[in-house]
């Protein structure tokens, strides 16, 4: 069935089952399937679909974008980048008077100020911003969670790793991926706690996970966010 609402059209399949309520399901490809009790009128099904319309469109688009994989970013007005878990449009500002390109964020957008209008300058300015924010966010999170640990980190470094969100070595040197600045604060906190727990247990044995779970009981949800969102954490 195709249904148009608020200027958008969604195609979905209806399956009638022995159940008491209407449920809406999306598969990994963004296809929509509605499960309804036998004999449910179309009008009732459409009313439930319309109630979930905005969420459905957003989730369908995200699944379709994920299937396409990482797309090369363009630094045109309106291109969206993640910051603290929220997708912001960018606004590029040309200011020949500045000595150093820089970035500011408000409630509506990520503002990139550049001396010259070049995509690479905008990209580098944004990447520097993420590095700086990641360091500040990580340091704050470490200070908040330090009371759980007897030992302190010997050093904190922000890296450009392609494979890890964070590491901790035997000398308690902690390293974190700059892209964490794109994640929600609670996800950053989880990665920080994860690496701090390695100051106590260097491997991933049961004792390690017990300690992680004691401090961040819902850590699996944070891991799931990273697994689902890492493909779009890019500049």
Give a quick rundown of the structure.
The protein has 235 residues and is an alpha/beta fold. The chain has helices spanning 42-51, 53-68, 119-145, 185-197, 206-215, 219-229; strands at 2-5, 8-17, 23-26, 32-37, 80-83, 86-94, 102-105, 110-114, 155-159, 166-168, 173-177.
Layout of helices and strands, plus pairs?
Blueprint: E1 2-5, E2 8-17, E3 23-26, E4 32-37, H1 42-51, H2 53-68, E5 80-83, E6 86-94, E7 102-105, E8 110-114, H3 119-145, E9 155-159, E10 166-168, E11 173-177, H4 185-197, H5 206-215, H6 219-229
Parallel strand pairs: 2-4, 6-8, 9-11
Antiparallel strand pairs: 1-2, 3-4, 5-6, 7-8, 10-11
Helix pairs in contact: 3-4, 4-5
Descriptive terms for the model:
4-stranded mixed beta sheet, 37% helix, 6 helices, 11 strands, alpha/beta, 235 residues
Could you characterize the architecture of this molecule?
The chain is of the alpha/beta class and 235 residues long. The protein is built from six helices and eleven strands. The strands form three sheets. A four-stranded mixed sheet has the order 1-2-4-3. A hairpin with a 2-residue loop joins strand 1 and strand 2 (8-17). Helix 3 (119-145) packs across helix 4 (185-197) and helix 4 (185-197) runs antiparallel to helix 5 (206-215). The radius of gyration is 22 Å and the shape is flat. It starts with a strand and ends in a 6-residue tail after the last helix.
């Amino acid at each position: 069935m195709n249904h148009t609402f608020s200027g958008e059209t969604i195609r979905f399949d209806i399956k009638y089952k022995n159940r008491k309520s209407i449920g809406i399901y999306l598969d990994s490809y963004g296809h929509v399937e509605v499960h309804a009790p036998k004999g449910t009128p179309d009008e009732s099904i459409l009313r439930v679909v319309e109630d979930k319309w905005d969420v459905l469109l957003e989730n369908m688009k995200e699944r379709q974008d994920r299937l396409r994989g990482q797309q090369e970013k363009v630094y045109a007005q309106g291109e969206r980048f993640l910051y603290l878990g929220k997708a912001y449009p960018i606004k590029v500002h040309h200011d020949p008077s500045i000595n150093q390109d820089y970035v500011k964020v408000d409630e509506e957008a990520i503002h990139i100020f550049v001396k010259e209008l070049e995509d690479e300058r905008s990209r580098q300015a944004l990447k520097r911003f993420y590095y700086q924010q990641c360091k500040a966010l990580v340091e704050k999170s470490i200070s908040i969670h330090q009371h759980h640990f007897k030992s302190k980190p010997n050093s904190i470094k922000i890296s450009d790793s392609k494979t890890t969100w964070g590491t901790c070595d035997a000398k308690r040197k902690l390293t974190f991926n700059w892209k964490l600045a794109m994640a929600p604060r609670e996800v950053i906190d989880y990665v920080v706690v994860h690496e701090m727990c390695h100051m106590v247990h260097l491997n991933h044995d049961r004792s390690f996970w017990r300690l992680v779970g004691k401090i961040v009981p819902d850590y699996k949800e944070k891991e799931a966010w990273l697994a689902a969102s890492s493909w779009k954490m890019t500049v």
